Every structure is written in C-alpha cells, then in structure tokens.
Amino acid sequence: MSPTHTGRRKGRVTRSPRPAAPQPSNTGLDLSGINLNLAVALDALLTEGSVTRAAKRVGITQSAMSHALAQLREMLGDALLIRGRGGMVRTPRAEQLAAPLHRGLLEVQRALRNESVFEPRTSSRRFTIASGDYHAATLLPPLLEILDAEAPGVDITIRPLVVPQLEAQLESGEVDLVIAAFPDPFPALRQQRLFREDFVCIVRRDNAAVKRGLDLETYLRLPHVLISPRGDGAGAVDMALERLGQSRRIGLRLPYFLTAALAVVRSNHVLTAPRRLAELFQDLCPVRLMPPPVTLAPFDVLQLWHERFDDEPAHRWLRTQIARAAAAPRGTR
Fold it and tell me: Which portions of the chain have biased composition (kind: Basic residues) (predicted)?
C-alpha cells in the first residue's frame, strides 16, 4: 500500500499540508491531524517487530522509520515496541492496535483500488484462500488449469484455516475465500455449495484381509487411520459405530488428509475418507476403494465469503472459477 498524506474534515477527505503535531496521549486523537504515513509505518512495525524490517517493508530508510516510531510513541503515549529477550516485543497497547489497524489499512487499500472492471487476462491480482489440504488438493489442479488459460498473471495463496479468526479475516479482506465443510452455518457470511461429498474406504491394493470384501467384522478387525486436525476427538465413523454398539482401533491419528492416505499404501491400515481425495490417490498410488460397511451421511463442501465483497468484480470472478473447478469432471481434476 502506497502511503499518502490525508486527513478528514467535515466528512470530506482533504490533503494535509504537513505532519500532525505529536499528541501527549492517545485520548481524543483528531483524525484530521494524523498523517496516514504514520499509520502505514505503525502497521509495518507491529507486523515485523523490527525497525529494520519495517523500513524495508514500507520502502524507507531505517532512520526514517526510527523517526516515525518516535512520533508514534509521542502521539499515542505508549512505547509500542520494547526490547525483549528475542528482540522487539509489542506492549499491551500495541497488541490492541495491531489487528484493527491492519484491517483498516486493507479497507483503505481496497477502496482506493476502485476496480469497477476486472480483466483476468491482464490482472496481476493475488487472491488468498483459507483451506485444508484435502480441499486444496482436489480443487487446485483444475483451478490452476483455468488460470493458466484465462488469467496467467493471477496468483493464489493458500493459508491454513483458523476457524476462530475466519469471520474477521473475511470481513477485513485479509482472506478472500474460505473453502471447507462446516456442520454449523455462519450467519454473517455468504456461502455457496461447491459439491456434496461422501465417504469411501482406502486400503492398499494387495491387502489380503479385504480380498473378499470389507464387511463390518473385517472393518473392525483392521487398524484404522483417523484424520483429526486437533489430534484428539472422534470422527463420523466412530459416531456411526457407537450407534451400533461397536468401536474400532485407531492405529494412527494425524491431522493431515494427504499423509493419512499415504499411510495405507504400505500397511494394513484402512482409511475412511472423502471420495474425491480417495479418487485422487487411486490415480496415484496402489490402493483400492471400497464402500464403508457402516452408513455415513454425506456432507457439503462450501466456499464462504463476506457480504462486503458480493459485488466486487474480481471477487465475483474468483468465486465463479472456484465453482468451475469444483464441477470439473474427474479426469480434469
């Protein structure tokens, strides 16, 4: 974001002729006297935790950033960053400022971008998507194929899905889209179903225990792989078995879908996983897919976004391409 000198008077943005005089405290700050360059500098300082790295991030000298930090300390009446054992650390006041300041600057950036028309073939826009490895693995190949053909300059960043921060990240624009399966809706977010998914069992191709099929007795006798993002808890299979008065042995518990599928290739373990992921591994590894011997309810995979971006042309285009990738035939996924 390129810093500009702006202020606000009577609801109108005006150009400030010079930096504001420092304030002795953070009480009753007059926004018309705040240099936006200082807000950009503060965001960089709180993000990087280093004067040197913050200066490089903004594109100014280290001396200029040190001067900006001195102005900010005087204006806000707080040290903001102090030296700790591992370098500079935020004060409690700085911790309170960091997230809302970053969101606010992103909002200003989006407002000034003013993309009334989005041209995918010439755009160099970067989109950020929060998703787990399963959804990324199944949707990225067809999505990248679309981008190569229709938007060669558009870049994608995939970030881990952090549910407690999900709504705030989408509202601020820090994350453009979330792709996931959620049993409970988010009333504040828009959502679109990309596809309905069901479960299959994955076993290695030469697993002698399942040559005659995978009945419930065999299923319970085999060790299982459980995908558990937090490393604990039970899955849909365990709840279905509990209704039958049965339980299974979890031989391996891990947080990653892709590693879980690889775990069965050279073991007697069985993995019960979403069909799209299983089909991906069937094409790549010596595994067999078999129907589960217990009834498991299907689930919906969604893309979610904040209503603020409903009508943004670039955002609308991205959602359309994600939906196209989800609908691509298996051979092109």
Answer: 1-15
Kindly state whether residues 157 and 63 are assigned to the same domain. Answer: no
More confident residue, 134 or 1: 134
Cα gap 105→116, rounded to integer Å: 20
Q: Sign of the C-alpha dihedral, residues 176, 181, 187, 191?
A: positive
Residue 116 has pLDDT above 80, yes or no: no
Closest CA to 277 of 227, 223, 239: 227
Give the number of other Cβ atoms within 10 Å of residue 218's Cβ: 17
Average confidence score pLDDT of the chain: 85
DSSP 245: T
Domain count, the chain: 3
Q: Which residues contact 199 (CB under 8 A, 6 or more apart)?
A: 236, 237, 272, 273, 274, 275, 292, 296, 298
**pTM of the entire predicted model:** 0.66
In the predicted structure, residue 223 carries a pLDDT above the cut 90: yes
